[in-house]
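[09:14] KT: can someone run the structure on this one? pasting the chain below
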Amino acid sequence: MQLAVANGFSIDRVVTEVGSGLNGRRRKFLGLASDPKVTTILVEHRDRFARFGSEHLAAFLETSGRRLVVVDDAEVDDDLVRDDDAA
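[09:31] RB: done, structure tokens below
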């Protein structure tokens, strides 16, 4: 949260949810993504909210004037997300 404030973001709501980035049915995250009053969704790590297809969600949000901001966009060294060629 300190990083968000240091970069000029105003935090209105903090939502935490324990769940896999492979689970597409996380109630709290889907609630944020579907709420038109939420203009910016800030996530700490891209792979923790969506292992695959995060670019699609970001593009969808942009069509309605909203955005997805990823604080740490470094690729995670994890067998579930690593491409077989990269191993």
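[09:33] KT: thanks! Confidence is low (pLDDT under 50) at residues 79-84.
[09:34] RB: yep, looked fine to me
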